[in-house]
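Justification of computing resources. Each target in the renewal requires a structure prediction run like the one illustrated here; the chain below, 360 residues long, is used simply to show the kind of job we budget for.
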Amino acid sequence: MSDVYFASARVKKLERNASLPAKFLRLLSLLELGKKVNGKNVCIKMHVGGGYGFTTIHPLFVRLLVDFIKSNGGRPFITDVVVPDPSRGYSEQTIGCRFVQATGIKDTNYFTVKVPSHYGIKELQIAGVLKDADFLINFSHSKGHGNCAYGGAIKNLGMGFVTTKTRIDLHSTVDAKPYWDRKKCKYCMICVKNCRASAMKFDENKKLIIDFHACVFCMRCVALCPQKALRLDSSNYEIFQRALALAAKKVLDQLDGNYCHINAIMNVTPFCDCLGISSPPIIPDAGIAGSYDIVSLEKATLDLIDKEKYIDGTLPGHLRLEKQKGHLFERIWGKDPYIQVFEAAKLKMGDLTYKIVEIK
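Resulting structure tokens:
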């Protein structure tokens, strides 16, 4: 059983020391992170988002982490696959350290790792910046995601430490299992017309394409197809989550145990930060959690999110709570968010059982 340190966003006293930033610093100390980073090049992996998105990790918490590393003799730098927009707060002046693009300006700084074919991909092009890191802090924003229902620490590594080609390959795994029978289809368009997510279309070659990032797995298309030309089940999206966990493992394999994971469970929206826009948070802020065990941290994070009360009226566009049971993200996206966590446990990346150590 692994320890998951948790700093609650709840403020019991109107005092500086009782606020979340103060608790965050105590969390870093209880993790004994200072000993780990001393004398090392410390890579802070974030998803910096873009566009009109404003629900990524607040620069204040990034600066607190950077200053903590410096005060303990570490040499921090921040990385992501995209360059942060300084107007959104992630400038060197604000966060206190430089930014290094994970795969380089031309997306050519990478090394290749072969993977088993049953994951739907043949290889991973992993960011070369890892070669410059002595220690990794996986600093993730926990939120929803169309393809896998949830994106946190596993996704921050598996999707955020690879080249554009590999990200496309990973996303393409959702098409690995056929879901449409051309021979049976009569092109009546009933499925397209009745898809409330507008996730279905026929391309120029009259092939049916489903955008699984928008699909909420309501299965209405399957039920309404008069020709029974559609066959969808959970395996159509589960393979993406499994491939994501494998990619995260291959990233961590390069670091020989020199890493720590921190999840900011705040401004939890249904979408990934790469969308470039933000919608209202769907739950009250929970806080910040940290652990050296990525499986325990992700399991605890999902459990903490599900314990919070959904804020009525915050789901944008076509999204709604379709189901009465299941995790909040599964009720929204129709996809089980725990699959990636179970796969990570299967890959021996950590322990599904955990103990919450709350920061006072």
